[in-house]
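Batch job 17 of 40 flagged for manual review because the log was empty.
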Amino acid sequence: MGDLKPSVPEPAPVNRGQVVADSLLDMLHGCQQPFAGKAAELVRQRDAYGRSKYGQPLMTDDGRNTLEDLRQELGDALMYAHKARMTGAHIDKASEWSDIKRFAQLVVVILEGME
């Protein structure tokens, strides 16, 4: 399996740094793509959920390994995608599939900005 390590438990986040959702929402607001509005709404919903769960927003200096968190979340996304395929989950090609695909593409665009 190469250099992949098993999932590593991360510590509880600390409230330090910049609010990630605010910066991402600013980026999406400046985006000229019509899909940016749907992405921004998802970010707002996930931010509210995270604040409820952790008592704070996702912060840049929260004491966690950001790339490890991302790797684990992408592993979960792979399993959910395969689960949908295995169960024959109905995807409305006109909206749901398009949204899922665009969210995945947006992750790639953001990560390519790191190179």
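Reviewer: the log was empty due to a logging misconfiguration, but the result itself is present. DSSP finds four helices and no strands in the chain. Unflagging and moving on to job 18.
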